[in-house]
Amino acid sequence: MPQFPYLVDAQWLSQHVDDPGVVVIDVRFSLANPELGRSQYQAGHIPGAYYLDLNEDLSGTVKQHGGRHPLPDWPVFVEKLNQIGINSALPTRVVIYDGSRFAFASRLWWMLRYLGHEEVAILDGGIQAWESAGRSLSKDLPAQQKGSFEPRLQKDWTVDIRTVRQRKDGLGVTVVDARSPERFRGEVEPIDPIAGSIPGAINAFWQNVSTAEGYLKSADALAGHWSELNPMDNIVVYCGSGVTACVNLFSMAVAGHPMYKLYPGGWSDWCAYLEEKGIGQNDLELGGLGDNS
């Protein structure tokens, strides 16, 4: 368990926002309007906060396979962390916020933890909580820094499509889909070419771990929410492209669970193979993917 909590509130951040050992990162973003988050940041952000973009900074190059938001090239990403002054030796305390009920903040929280940096928290309630507390915003852009970040990759935290295919029906394996129930059931699909879900997966909508106002539910409530999961099992969490699945992983950690495995490619990776084979929604339960796919 890290010394720094997983979650901080606006009062804590207001008392520490000027600390030299604290770095604040704004990751506001909109899948429907990719430029919106940066525009919001430029219009006003928590003083001293840096901005990282989901597409440009928190994701790698989109390829034929790997999903819509593949994990970034790690050396490139580490250099970005150095430029905003994150150090491993001190270590720097990182606070992340968004305006979307942890959707994008959890992605960066998971990435930093994946790289071995444990001193990272998310601002409860996001930018709305900061403003509701009467705190001011700034348009000033912080200066580039020279950090010293040394990554320690937790390579066993992720699985690829081949691993999911081979293990999903095994004893003691649970695959958790973080998307909305409608997308999970294949009734709608606003983003990917094929609707549906990985056969055998269970659904746990990522928004159910927070309130409508964007605050994380209590640790006790989250423990109850995830009570049916056996921490000793092999648990894999996915979503559309490895973003909101991290909200579930974050809430599981707050509830006291270990870090389960992320399938970063998610449904966008899975259904890309189906599309190649000409398999539609009605064929999903027929198996669609062979070992050589």
UniProtKB/TrEMBL annotation:
Record bears the keyword Oxidoreductase: no
Residue intervals of the Rhodanese domain: 18-139, 172-272
Keywords attached to this entry: Repeat, Transferase
Superkingdom, natural source: Bacteria
Entries under Gene3D superfamilies matching the protein: Rhodanese-like domain
CDD domains assigned to the protein according to its UniProt record, in alphabetical order: TST_Repeat_1, TST_Repeat_2
Pfam families, sorted: Rhodanese
MF annotations from Gene Ontology: thiosulfate-cyanide sulfurtransferase activity
Classification via InterPro entries: Rhodanese-like_dom, Rhodanese-like_dom_sf, Thiosulphate_STrfase_CS, TST/MPST-like
Protein name: Sulfurtransferase
Naturally occurring in which organism (per UniProt): Leptolyngbya foveolarum
Lineage: Bacteria, Bacillati, Cyanobacteriota, Cyanophyceae, Leptolyngbyales
